[in-house]
Amino acid sequence: MENGFQSTRAEAFPAGLRVLVVDDDVTWLKVLEKMLKKCSYEVTTCCLAIDALNMLRERKDGFDIVISDVNMPDMDGFKLLELVGLEMDLPVIMMSVDGETSRVMKGVQHGACDYLLKPVRMKELKNIWQHVFRKKIHEVKDIESYEVIDDIHLMRNGFERFEDSHLLSGEVGPKKILDLMNIPWLTRENVASHLQKYRLYLSRLEKESEPNTAFGCFKQTDFSPKDPSVGFGLQSSITAHQSREACSSFGFSSGEVHVQPIDTEIKEGDLKDIIPLLPSPEARNALVGKLHEIQKKTSGSQIDFSSSVGSVGLDVKCNSFDATGLRKHQWSGGFSDMQFKRQTEPDNKLYRHASPAFVSPHSSIETNCLQPAPSVNAGAPISKMEKESSSGSGIKRLCGRYQTSNVTYLPAMTSTESPLPLQPESGIGNILLSGRACTMNESSSAKSNSFCHSKSSSWGYDQKDLFEASTAVLQSSNENLPVSSLQDYDYVENTVLNNIEFLEYDDLELFAALPGQHCDRLKFNSDYNLSEPVEYPAMDQGLFIV
DNA sequence: TTTCCTATCT
DNA sequence: TAGATAGGAA
């Protein structure tokens, strides 16, 4: 199994495991060194925690595991444990003569992968390799999850071509979408099926919005948690376009805020092509009206159109300004958040739970650049999910389809100040206000967090951004959720068991030097004769995969 | 024959 | 609720 070890060491594993032992008691150091060497491990000993830390820092990849005493004069063992965990991400085993549960718990909470009671048993030392192995397995799992992102990038590229090919002009069929996405494992049936769902959704949305929602008007219902138009699953962004005249409007999905100067004027032909795709009669009528304006070349009127196929979705944004530049309509919608099952590759397990989804059109908004919509900026109620998130239970499923995301409401502002650092001169500016719409999946880990923590720098539906947003979820959630650093609870139990049995030693010289209370607890057992090399049982991966 | 759409199943 | 599939229509 590829687990990250260098090939030669991997073959010999667990023999050659590089162990750093830290204990201020020289006698114990010698005992442990000898025992560990009997296990065919490479042993380095250190009397001071600070020296151990320096050694670890100097030899970044020089050790596989650390065994540290809890009580040391220069540095608390827990502190060392914390630092090693933070800086080296190495498994650390704590050891102490004190087996008090609270103490053991503290060790585990600080990130110890095991807590051994002195005197340490040979059996326990023999099995410390499992902690290294377990960690490697987790790392491999993380890497596999990263590969999902690579394929998501593949989808993004497909959508970019989708945009480049002007697919928006004319009817969009599953075949064409499929061809242009150019994703090998995707089938036309996949696309068709989800297109069907998407259209069903649109028709439902249209029916629901007919009685009270006119195009261009911002309604409170736009932010209903059950309204998919607010955003789907990963799709969580607020898009604010800023015209050259510094006229701003805000399109809401949720979560992210993007500010972008609009510099692409719509062409008449483009508009004609877009109109049939609009989800509602109001939207179509609005654009038809604007099309007439263009055709008439009415002075002072401007329609800005930006079509963006984000990384994983087709997104259409239409913005229209009146002659004064004070008001505009915006419609935004398209396909996004595409996740498809990989049917044709049964060996691929990464997408087993993935599924396609077409994102809904975003809520349409009419606003005035001089007087931002009060319902948006001031006193707007927080959506249900936002409340849940802030109350500490806001972890949502990552792959929720047709499911609303959080809406992040901007703080109240006056006409003279903008809640967003608009950058009319310098181009695109993005602000991630909040990304609590979704969670990492079950394979998420601290490693995943570090992988994803870089900030978003693009706008639109960038799947990467969404993952980053997901990370932000976790990071922000940490403040609210009782996140425990307990990594493997079974260690706690294991530690308790340590108290039951006694150790096995056969080196009487060494034990003669041990403090009396230690010797008292010893039981010599010929099962672990130090003169014989230790044999390891065949590794059963199933035993160690959590 | 291919593609799309709809209904139905899972 | 959403994806898969079957069957009819163009």
Automatic annotation (TrEMBL):
DNA-binding listed as a keyword: yes
UniProt keyword list: Activator, DNA-binding, Nucleus, Phosphoprotein, Transcription, Transcription regulation, Two-component regulatory system
SUPFAM superfamilies from the UniProt entry: CheY-like, Homeodomain-like
Keyword Transcription: yes
PROSITE patterns linked: RESPONSE_REGULATORY
SMART domains: REC
UniProt xrefs under InterPro entries: ARR-like, CheY-like_superfamily, Homeodomain-like_sf, Myb_dom_plants, Response_reg_B-typ_pln, Sig_transdc_resp-reg_receiver
Superkingdom per UniProt: Eukaryota
Compartment(s) of residence: Nucleus
GO biological processes: cytokinin-activated signaling pathway; phosphorelay signal transduction system
Domain Response regulatory positions: 18-133
GO cellular component, one term: nucleus
Modified residues (4-aspartylphosphate): D69
GO molecular function: DNA binding; DNA-binding transcription factor activity
Biological role stated in the UniProt entry: Transcriptional activator that binds specific DNA sequence.
Entry-linked PANTHER family: TWO-COMPONENT RESPONSE REGULATOR, TWO-COMPONENT RESPONSE REGULATOR ORR26-LIKE
Protein name according to UniProt: Two-component response regulator
